[in-house]
Amino acid sequence: MPKSENRFQFVSFTERIARVTADVSTWYKQVSNAAEDESTFFYETLIKCGELEGNNEFLNDFVKAIPVEQLRTYTQVLHFQKKLAAELEKHLQVENSSAFAILFQLVVALARDIRDDFYQYMWTLFTAITNALERSKHDPEVLEAGFVALAVLFKLQWRHITKDMRKAFCYFIPLFGSRENYMRRFAAEAFAFVFRKSNSVEKFVAFAAKKAAKSDDGFLLDGVAELYFNTFKGVSHQFHSRAQMQFELVLKATLSIEDETQRNTAVEIVDKLIKKMVAFTRKEHSKPITDVLLKFLDLPSSDKRKESVTSLARLLTTWIEYKRGAVFQDYDRLFTIVHKIVRENPDRSESVFLDFISLLLQLRSEAVDKNGQRTKEIVESVLSAQALNVTLAVNFVTTLTDVPGFDVNIMPVVGQFAERVLNQANCARSDEVVVLNLYARICAKRRPISTLDLMQHGSTSRRPFMDARNHITVREHVIKAMDSLDAGVDQLSLELLVPAVAILPWLWRSGETVQGVERVVDILESILDDDTSKFGPRAGAFALICATTALLIDDKSLASIKRDRFLDFIRRQCCLESSVQLLELVQQRCADWQEMDAVERLKETAEVLSSAFLSPHSVVRRAALGVMAAFPVQLEANDDEKNGGQQESVFDVLLEAESTDLTIQNYRHRLMLVRKLAHGSHRKFMPIGLDKELEWIPLKVILAQFYENFALLWPPLYAIAETYARGMPIDDFWTLFAPILEAANERAASSAMSVDTTTAGDDEVGALLEQLVGTNSARPADDVTFRLHMWRLVSRFADVAERRTRIISPMLLKLAREEYKVGESSGRSTEDLSATIKEPVTEEVVEEEEDEDEEKPATRKRPGRRSVTKALVAILDTFAQFQDPKSVYLEPQIAQLYDELLLVPDETVQTAVMKCIFTYKHKFLTPYKENLERLVSDKSFRDELVMFSIDTQDSAVAEEHRKEFMPVLMRLLYGKLQTHVASAAIPRRSAVFRFLAGCQPDELSVFLNILFSPLRTVASTGTDIRSMCETIQSDFDVTKVVALRKIKRLAHVGEYFILLSKCTG
């Protein structure tokens, strides 16, 4: 049968549940209105279900308890109604019943037969049904039958229920507050029909909010919101005909609640409702709901309306945030209403309302307000409020920087606001800082440092974006703040200095002479000469801002500062991003730029920037290469020069490569540039008179490319980096590469254990500096992946690495012992019994700890088990290629490590270790290489156990090999025995023990010694029990006890051996 015709497809629980509905409107017409042949609904349903489910013992028990043959007429059903209701309630309480779906149908049938008389049993049977649903919440058929039954009951009894909606809601609370989303949805669909019929919507809304406010979690809130949504929902993305009227009642009741806590809860419910409605509808169908929101927003102002406007602003924000306002229709009316509110109530200063105005202006000001006049008036009205908090106002303006016409329409208003704040008689210093920070953030947005082409155009790059005549007061405070440097620099002065320096160039018009450049240069020099860490980790960023400001004002303002001072500053800053960018910006403008020999200056700079070329961040490498590319270097004559072409230095090539974006379209161009610098080919790009430090730069930058998260780039980079390992003198290569490898191991191992939280972005000044210079102190480096790449690279030139095992052997041992913790991996872990055990271990097979490779934003975790395993396997792959393993440095310890790693329950590790062991070319192993490889593979393990016999009568192992071969095989089998897959544990254990039945006694003792080695610290052989107990009592350490799960597992293994001994005895 073709795949397209396959009707038997697996449907997940989620998919099945998604198809179920309890909406009465979708299926109620299919329910017949009269029973056939004048019999009762109850009798018909019972007979029909009896025919279909004749062997259901739970149904048979129910049938035996009622007089079936006496239920044919309505009179008989009315007579036995109490007994029927009681028996239904009783059987609905039976645990694990398979007749729930049938009983639900019988409840509905009874309700249809006795009609109004059923209401006296309504809530008793309702409770029984909901309890049954809770017990069967993972059975789609029962869930569908149960909620359909509830919906029919509500359809039949709606006249009674609507008289006491609050009582009905109380019974529904367990369903509305369920943790399962589909339970809340079913309950809402069933209840929605009754809610539409209710005449007491406002009382119900207040009551539901009161109940929801008392709930400990948000499930009941979501359940009530789901109820409202199903009440208003129609078909084809449209709303019900009564939706507008009922939503108006819901919103009116929500805004009228007196108790603040309950009102906030009600608003949160409506907010969730808005999210559901806006995701459901389309723009052309949204008018009934948005008209209600706009109607309430446009009501006459009063004192009581303040909370209402705030709540409505929150709800409208939720609506227009979805798809950037694409579902909202009448923006012109919304603008008019908002303009009216801020004009009539200028003192409104709630953050929610300001956020709403900000979002509205960002999304639709250009479309609705063509000339920007209304936008200007709205902002002016907001900022003119006397009671407006300065911080709130600043945050409001900061969000508007992307509004079209911001420079022309909004900046003059900002100038008026700043003048009013700064000219106050009692203007607080904090207000002054907040205002200057606002200007600095606006400048960072409108004129980012990264877009200022100062290298090419200098001071001509200063193109003011605002009319300076509207900001005279701010200019005066900026000059005053810079003059405060005479009193010394502290935290308070920095809060003013940083924004003051950043905004200085933009407070004068193009034709005016900017004042204060001398003070900026003084500040820069004080930063460069700071040996006391007065400016802390923010020194580099602040120095870059000062240099940028000075050069925007005057190209020659930094000519008096010698280049050596910048180099000393970079040394102290350890090549941080901003400090390297600072050198790139200023070095050609320094007074001593032309004084020194170019080659000597080049060598000195390369030494200072040594760590920058291997930086994890491309922006640092790019800035460092920009510094180097600026030097006028002389290259050896090559074909380009002979043909009249322009020569490119190695720094030009690398700079162009780093400047190429890593995309699917452009990554090949970066690779092409890097390939030019493969070892041997790179010499024609190197300057004359180079030394080792300069020759190492291409390799450092190439290795740093492995920090880039772009997988297509990595394979070609391996080949390019390999040319240096094979082409460079081995001592020169390992002099550079060994520290890189060691540092990669250390950073990967300590990435979670020590996280530097004292970054420049932890305070307001640091955050502002980062925004101004465009850096991110929280940007993590993927040291774990870089370490893996380095070891995979080493495996490509294993023959070279074999000559330097003094370097890599200790690294292997350290990784295996300290990070991989090989003892714990082979099941020899201990635990601290003094600690509180939160979750007792009950499983016989312990699940493997979850991998922690993935990093969350702004969080650095310890390398996960899988990452460490990959690194270990990469190192073992290198050792597996050695030609003379016995000459490896620390060979005895390496060989012992191989034996321990064979015990690890990891196929990849065992495979890599077996390859390493095969390099010894032992005569007792080589003939069985293929057999061992198949035993290592999980896919062929079970089959090979059957085929590879070790029985003395039909052994595949030669007798002269058994003594040395069997210990290796026993270790391998022990590792396979420690599976982490629970479903495979018992079958694999049985297969291994059947295989061990062919062992000789001395061979089996090897396996037992390995198996019970964790208990040797507790029970030693060769001593009597009394002495052993005394030793345990004196030496027992409760913090280092053999893991209890391990002891339990060994007990189960012991049972197998007892059975095995009986079978073989």
UniProtKB/TrEMBL annotation:
Residue spans of biased composition, Acidic residues class? 842-855
Please provide an example of a Pfam family that matches this protein in its UniProt record: UTP20_N
In the UniProt record, which is one GO cellular component term?
Answer: small-subunit processome
- Chain ranges of the U3 small nucleolar RNA-associated protein 20 N-terminal domain: 869-1048
Matching SUPFAM superfamilies, A to Z? ARM repeat
Q: According to the lineage, what is the superkingdom?
A: Eukaryota
Q: Where is this region: Disordered?
A: 824-863
Q: What is this protein called?
A: U3 small nucleolar RNA-associated protein 20 N-terminal domain-containing protein
